[in-house]
Design goal:
The structure is a homodimer. Chain A has about 450 residues and is of the alpha+beta class. Helix content of chain A is about 40%, strand content about 20%. Chain A has helices at about 15-35, 50-55, 60-65, 80-90, 140-155, 165-175, 180-190, 190-195, 195-210, 210-220, 230-235, 245-260, 325-335, 360-370, 385-395, 405-410, 430-445, and strands spanning about 40, 45-50, 65-70, 75, 100-110, 120-130, 160-165, 270, 280-290, 300-305, 320-325, 350-355, 375-380, 400-405, 415-420, 425. The radius of gyration of chain A is 27 Å and the shape is elongated.
């Protein structure tokens, strides 16, 4: 028979079992955290009508999109979870209660140039709060507080949620007579981290015909650094010259104050005037999240406030605020940097139950008893030598092996072997469950990321 | 602005939040059950190289597949989870321990004719056990036992896992000199439930040129009914005439005996000689699962034993046994038949925390305290009238509202209102958590399906 090479496409993450368990653990913690903060889970199709997905049209996105015909239909794979959310809220508006809070963890597709650490299929883990007509600013502080909680529960310590405000930026550009160029300026300033001040200044002058002193004004503003209070204080110097600026400053002050009230420590969030987010639909607070020790990988979690989620689908005004974790890329980086905890139990089971008699009955009973106690038990029924069976136990990394020979069956007990210590005891099924659970629980409560 | 209709493609399930919660609950129970039986979670790409996905080629599948070009690549969306598993095991053979037990719950794609209750994007929830070279028959009994456990935990009571054996069928056809037509006969006999005996007999005669007495032999065999023991007893009449038949009968006896040992009650499984499964790669035990009261919807969970999982990718002999739940279709049927429990809590949170003072501080603290106790709490910060706030609580179906007015803040307590009974009490945060948890736990332990 002629064979096909069993290859996986480049740009598509496919994990080995132990790594997959770590990924599942991370997703589970995100689901739990998002649920604790009252987000309801959503699931939308991976395929949508191209017309619907590209209602906004244009830009980089359209080039990267997976788009194809099936019969008469012009179809496309979703490239984010925000557009499907907009469609969903517009389509089901009458059935939803607002503020509508949803989370979605799902795969999205972008046919980017293949590159190490870049993925064409990747998970996003999104939360959004959508208002009907209006939405209180408290939500703009709660969103990063949720991310703080999620990251902390994952085990991350050294990260910083950077916060800025688009009204503040727009106001600043207005008071400098640069409103028309605001979008372009923000696009260029976004490169500050990558290319540095000198180059950004030159780009502002060359590409936007900006006078040198105006380019310096921009860079001076972006250079404002310090503690959150210090930055806010320095921004006061600009107050009173532009209404939008003043509104943005007020919002930034409010969000900063709430963030502290929501329990986010100062070291985990920072007002940062250089972040703007590329997308032009953000209108208020914007976020990026940096791993403190790995600034070069860019933001692992971004989002912001928008005034009109679904303008391409409905005339309803639907303001909202949301944030998205680029989960596949985050996982990739954590794996590359050796930051995934080895403490987490990645074996497919907690106990491998090996019958040593012809009749599997007692082994089946033992496995059933362990499962009733909430433990993951595997019955090993292959006819192999004892050594091969123990080799299998080693290979899957199971913490306990349960042996059922004639002795054990006669006594109605189990021999329980701790695979790490090598210690073996004869116990009742109940005692075995208690012993195994103790060890398991310690490891299952470990955070999946080494902070 | 010209608007696009926010439509979802036909054949794609998109659930409202409350239904989505029920679906998530079902998926969670499947994940838990599969994990208890020591299956490790896998996740493979939705897109694969068409060449890889269609290595086996031909048949109905190829017509239904979503296949498209992107750049130079000929791509396709997976149409089941078995082919990706075969690819995975072949590609990662050296890194896996055998028997390799994996579960996967994921979306698959088939561009079928749009039809009520038929889906083009649907979830399958699969388990498979793969051996290296050989695999003990005990696994063929454990698989339906796991499905029994899963269905029972979901709340289903009236279902029957139907079991047959392909060696038994092949042997029967051989001893009747019909081996060459075995595949075609099985395909036609598969229609027994739909078109009845008379028509099947005619089809056997017309389409396969079968002599009438031979067609009757086939139908007599298929007509064997009774308790499992009775059927096995009647099959003894054929013993000794064909080796493959005898082997199949032995396997069926073994599987039936083990199934009882695994704790599956007789009413939930049945030897049924009419089931064969269309796919020609099954070689031993085969399964179909019928909802007793809805036989017309066909099998909701099917699978079987195969000798060679990945022959298109590797020369390694990889026998296995697996089963797949058609989750989207099952959910659709349960929904249509009103079998989804209303007991399950579908609100996005357990408590809606409403601050009644300017300062949200105490409300944030209360929400945080509830979350620390594992409860899902939503802080309501919109500036609306009290009545509108309570209307929102009603609309989302939240079981408890927590009010924080000046009185409560002064006393350091919370007013907790049970939205079902209307009862309101002033309590400490700890007391509130206890009260809320009691009500919640009862509902959260409810099975998602009314059996």
């Amino acid at each position: 028979m002629s064979r096909v090479e069993p290859r996986t496409l480049s740009g598509f993450m496919e994990l080995l079992p132990r790594d997959q368990v770590k990924m599942e653990r991370i997703m589970q913690i995100l689901r739990e955290t998002y649920s604790l903060f009252a987000f309801t889970p959503l699931d939308t199709p991976v395929i949508e009508a191209a017309e619907v997905l590209l209602a906004k049209g244009g830009g980089e996105t359209e080039k990267q999109i997976y788009r194809f015909q099936k019969g008469d239909s012009d179809l496309a794979l979703r490239f984010d979870l925000t557009v499907p959310l907009a469609k969903y809220v517009a389509a089901h508006y009458g059935s939803l209660a607002f503020p509508f809070r949803r989370y979605q963890i799902g795969k999205v597709y972008r046919g980017e140039r293949a590159q190490r650490g870049r993925f064409r299929e990747f998970y996003q883990a999104d939360i959004d709060v959508i208002g009907d007509g209006k939405l209180d600013i408290a939500n703009e502080a709660e969103i990063p507080a949720i991310i703080y909680t999620a990251f902390t529960r994952l085990g991350l310590r050294r990260f910083r949620i950077k916060v800025n405000n688009r009204k503040l930026l727009n106001g600043f550009y207005a008071l400098n007579g640069m409103s028309e160029k605001a979008q372009d300026i923000m696009r260029i300033v976004d490169k500050l981290d990558k290319v540095g001040e000198v180059k950004v200044k030159q780009m502002l002058i060359d590409e936007l015909n900006m006078r040198p002193y105006k380019a310096e004004n921009v860079l001076d503003f972006m250079a404002i650094r310090g503690s959150n209070d210090e930055i806010l204080e320095r921004l006061e110097a600009y107050r009173g010259m532009d209404e939008t600026f003043d509104l943005g400053l007020e919002e930034l002050r409010t969000v900063t104050r709430y963030l502290a009230a929501f329990g986010v420590p100062e070291e985990n969030f920072a007002v940062d005037l250089t972040i703007a987010r590329g997308l032009d639909y953000y209108t208020g607070t914007v976020y990026e999240t940096e791993l403190t020790d790995y600034p070069e990988i860019g933001s692992v979690c971004s989002g912001g406030r928008y005034d009109n989620l679904a303008e391409y689908y409905t005339d309803k005004q639907l303001p909202g605020v949301g944030i998205s974790i680029g989960l596949t890329r985050l996982f990739y980086v954590l794996q590359e940097q050796g930051l995934l905890s080895e403490e987490v139990l990645t074996a497919p089971c907690d106990a491998l139950v090996i019958p040593m008699t012809e009749d599997y009955g007692p082994a089946v009973e033992a496995a059933t008893a362990l499962r009733s106690a909430g433990l993951r038990a595997q019955l090993y029924t292959e006819k192999r030598k004892f050594k091969a069976k123990m080799g299998y136990a080693d290979k899957i990394g199971v913490p306990f092996v349960v042996l059922l020979g004639e002795d054990e069956v006669a006594k109605g007990q189990l021999s329980v072997k701790n695979m790490e210590s090598g210690e073996q005891q004869m116990l009742s099924a109940e005692q075995a469950a208690v012993l195994i659970r103790e060890t398991i629980e310690k490891r299952n409560s470990a955070a999946p990321i080494r902070g």
